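The pair is set out directly below:
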Amino acid sequence: MPSPAESSIIAAFDDDDELAGFWCIQVAYHAGPLWIAPKHRGTRLWASLHEALCRTFAKLGGTGFYSFCGQPKVESIFKALGYTDLGYTVWKKEIK
């Protein structure tokens, strides 16, 4: 769960001062992208990179992170590493 100190909330209240809705923005760890040079593909380099990534992440004090992909090969790597497919479509909003 993200720290409230690192989150913001926007709230709307109706004419009776009752909560009508809210939307939060939170800091979330994202591990990615994963890239392996062509000559090193098929060597399982991703496994040792993942071990080092997890050791580094543990030092940050987090409890989990997200990774995104749209490629079957990367999805198979995530499955092999024990990631959970959340079944979500990811949307992004650019602020200019």
